[in-house]
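Q: I have 441 residues here and want to know how they pack in 3D. Can you give me a structure?
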Amino acid sequence: MNSLKTLITEKEGEKGYSRQYVKVTDTTENGVVCIDSDLDSNGKFRGITHLLSSVFLPQGYPSSVSHDYLEYQIWDTIQAFASSLSGSLSTRAILEGVGVGSSTSTPLAATLMWLIKDGTGMVGRILFAWCNGTKLDADSKKWRFFADLLNDCALSLELCAPYAVVAVGGSNGTMTSILCVAGVAKSIVGVAGGATRAALTQHQARQGNLADVSAKDGSQETLVNLAALITSLWLLPILDGATGLTWLMFILFTLLHVFANLKAVKAVTMETLNRARYMIILKQFASTKYVASVKEVNRLEPVIMGLIPTEEDVCGYRIKLGCSIKAVASQSIFEKQLAHYSERNFAVIPDPLTKTIYVIYRRDCKVEDMLESYSQAILSAMLSSGYSIMDLDPPLDGDISKALNQLEKSSYWKELRQGLVNQGWNLGQSLLAPGEWRASW
């Protein structure tokens, strides 16, 4: 009679193979036998699924990535497929516009036109990164959506190029101008899209596997582009010469691209606080003492360009973080305010005349100091404008300095901080994008 004793069990990841190692004892043989629990009637299917998962998903999925990874990747795949098909249609239009197939066009003219387009795009890429590079981390979802919308505009412009050339009598200058504008737009898309993709990948990687998540994202994108390429090989001959049908398909692909992008960025749930997410939390906390959850706030966060101003207008006040003392040195209350914050790593100095709240940081200012200073600036503006915050009554004369003193003496930050921790917000990092000035006093 056989005697079985399980010695050890093992499993490859969360959804990989599982095995048991048992000791078999009978009258003729003693030894350890491996029993593979996946070797059943569905073993081949499980093997294929495991292979595809290892090729296109990060190692250790799903525990190695954020919980919003799958939903985001599904919508990102759809938008990439739609964008590739739209790009195929616009590429055909560009080739037609530069004279491919025309007896009047020379290879030299087409080459020069292409080089000018690439050159202007390079300049546009440098200028955009210079002007907006520091903003891409803070509002990565907004800039990601903006980049995809701008890409659709560039593709639309390229698709219109041949008709514009015909309208002006076949001018090479017109085609060059159109391609240059589209090239600049696409260069901006490249910077904004690439930078925000890196920020989102950093959010999704949860086990120090940033490179793996990025690499598998690239594999997914390559597969999608391959599928779009095959589809384009079938679709383009059908659309050849059918202008109306071409535009109809382009509009449908563009609408699908925009919708899928919106769903993708809305699916991202970030635990770090930027100005937009923190603003939502503070407004709700001011009226209810409740700190909203990560999922609630990300669902309410606007992702369309223009709905997240660089410097928030809070009850008529602008908030400037990490600014130079030069901006406030001429105020009569400057010394008094600095003395009030002598033991703090920041100073909040309002200017009622210009309706601006300046926040100055010490050199050893920490992330939580920045979060507290920003909340103090926002809530003081609300309090001075007549809003009741927690148990604080607004100053009768609307003096914002009095509002700041009330907040300093209250326990609001202790309650707010505890609420943020309880809801799972990451207070070790912030995306408030303050200025670089630091002071000593």
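Q: Anything worth noting?
A: The CA atoms of residues 64 and 209 lie 8 Å apart. The radius of gyration is 29 Å.
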